[in-house]
Design goal:
Blueprint: H1 2-6, E1 15-19, H2 25-31, E2 34-39, E3 47-48, E4 61-66, H3 76-86, E5 87-94, E6 105-111, E7 117-120, H4 126-132, E8 135-140, E9 152-153, E10 174-175, E11 178-183
Parallel strand pairs: 1-2, 1-4, 2-3, 4-5
Antiparallel strand pairs: 5-11, 6-7, 8-11, 9-10
């Protein structure tokens, strides 16, 4: 899926930035000659940036990747507007979050046992993306062949727990992974 999204970006002419570098960093670094990493706190990145107030020029990046970041950002709408601002026309942001709830749950404070999440996004969370971006395409586990199924299997009937005090109980054990691709026209 990522390779399909990247085919529209020239490796030599496109600028890309990844927030919270992870296992995808080597792949992205190979695809873009103009590639930067960013994080709010880490010192092993190219730029220390706050997604809510990006110290970047308008329309400075063609591609932005931030996987499992937005659930940590208290003012996520400010961050989404900043991401939109720094994307060039025709730009794409991939902003995956863990969708572990039927409906988004906003936490009253960051939860240390959930890596300081401030919310548990549900399917309705992507409506926030649609308020900002021109097009939002959701790819789910069901869009891929069985051998690549990135489903999450989890017993959520036990929630809330000591380590997940704000999550609500849900039935079922198999949950989709969702990758939102957010475009600026």
């Amino acid at each position: 899926m990522l390779q399909e999204c990247l085919k529209n970006f020239s490796p030599t002419d496109s600028a890309a930035i990844q927030f919270a570098p992870d296992a995808m960093t080597p792949f992205l670094r190979q695809h873009f000659q103009n590639f930067k990493t960013a994080d709010l706190y880490r010192d092993d990145v190219d730029l220390n940036l706050d997604l809510r107030r990006l110290a970047l020029d308008d329309e400075s990046y063609d591609f932005l990747f931030a996987s499992h970041v937005m659930e940590h950002v208290d003012d996520d709408m400010a961050a989404l507007n900043e991401i939109y601002r720094v994307l060039k026309p025709g730009g794409l942001a991939i902003l995956a979050v863990p969708s572990r709830s039927g409906k988004t749950i906003e936490y009253p404070e960051p939860v240390p046992t959930e890596h300081y999440h401030v919310r548990m996004p549900g399917m309705d969370y992507f409506d926030r993306y649609r308020e900002v971006f021109d097009t939002v395409t959701l790819y789910t586990s069901d869009d891929f062949p069985n051998r690549f199924q990135p489903y999450v299997y989890e017993d959520r009937t036990v929630f809330p727990t000591e380590t997940s005090p704000y999550q609500l109980p849900e039935t079922g054990r198999k949950f989709l992974e969702i990758v939102p691709c957010c475009s600026k026209q």
